[in-house]
Amino acid sequence: MVKINDVAREAGVSAATVSRTLNGRSSVDPVLAARVREAASRLGYRPNGVARSLRRQVTDVLALIITDVSNPFFTAITRGVEDVAQSRGLSVLLCNSDEDPGKESTYLHVAEQEQVAGVILSPHRTGSDVAHLRRASIPMVVIDRPLEEPVDSVMVRSREGARAATNHLIDAGWTRPACITGPEDAWTAQERLEGYLEAVREHGELAELWVHAPFRQQGGMTGAARLLDAPEPPDALFVANAQMALGVLEEVRRRGLRVGVDLGVITFDDAPWAPFISPPMSVVAQPAYDVGAQAAQLLMERVKGTAPDAPRHLWLSTMLIVRESSRRHGAG
User: 157-188 in b/e burial notation, b at 16+ Cβ within 10 A?
Assistant: First the structure.
């Protein structure tokens, strides 16, 4: 990265002259100013606006690193972060890690190099390496999944939501509920599986049926196929996120099964399409916007230096919304 000192050497002037020139000060001799601008252009120098803001003790960029920008849950989180940040005069740099540890690591290093004011991270796993950010004194808040570092966090009670969804399926009369959850190394996937298992075990002799799959539409499709191809297939499915649920619906309809009649279905996340399909989808709704807004608020307090030394951990609750997909209807 070309720095002011490099431009100063190239132009044969002091670093202070370069700084005054590039900041538009009229006190610089026009000949020297022209020499500075020519040297800066030749070297490809770009002023670091974030660093300049930090020197003024005014920060203006946050990095938001999420696992899947196409997931409506993260879309709502992003809106919550952006609304709070914008109200305080900050911009948000959005990064999509794609559940890829390599991409996540790259974005974390970019955040450090660009000297962002703070980072909001949905980590791929609890062991994601953020030590370099802490060494650089860049404040951080994690969302959706915890981290093994002592940082602020905003989490959703996934296990409770999964238990409520599974209990609802059982109470509705389905006798072999199964769970399609996310990857084994994803904390949210494990929490939702544990909630499912707790509910099944509370009801005695029910079979424990589950599969792990990617948090994607294709993952839901392949997970549903594996369960439905079993010698004793389930009669209901609890699905760990809305994108997977789309794949489940695709597979179910490919087989000619009727949701709410042949198979009960409920999913995490109240996606925009959920109330409008036929039959409408029952969901465990997460307060996604609030997750983003609360995380941004915690981060703002860290940036301003008004937060306590000890990390803060906020837990938000889910809401069970029952629609027709999980109710048991007779074959008409």
Answer: bbbbbbbbbbbbbbebebebbbbbbbbeebbb
CB of 300 closer than 8 Å to CB of 88: yes
Cβ–Cβ < 8 Å for 321, 285: yes
Q: How far apart are CA 19 and CA 4, in angstroms?
A: 7
Give the predicted TM-score (pTM) of the model: 0.78
At residue 205, φ and ψ (nearest 5 deg) are: -90, 25
Helices marked H in the chain — which ranges?
4-11, 15-22, 30-43, 49-55, 72-87, 101-113, 131-135, 158-171, 187-202, 217-228, 242-254, 288-304
CB 316 within 8 A of CB 294: yes
- 3-state DSSP assignment of residue 37: helix
Cα angle for residues 181, 68, 287 (degrees, 5° grid): 75
pLDDT band of residue 305 (cuts 50, 70, 90) is confident
What sign does the dihedral 62-66-69-72 (CA atoms) show?
Answer: negative
Are residues 175 and 206 in contact, defined by beta-carbon separation less than 8 angstroms?
yes
- What residue type is 166 in one-letter code? T
Mean pLDDT of 76-91: 93
Q: Which range is least confidently modeled, 95-109, 181-195, 222-236?
A: 95-109
* Residues above pLDDT 90, as percent of the chain: 64
Within 8 A by CB and 6+ apart from 231, the residues are none
Residue 298 · residue 314 · CB < 8 Å: yes
Amino acid at 296: A
Q: Which tokens go with 195?
A: 């909630």
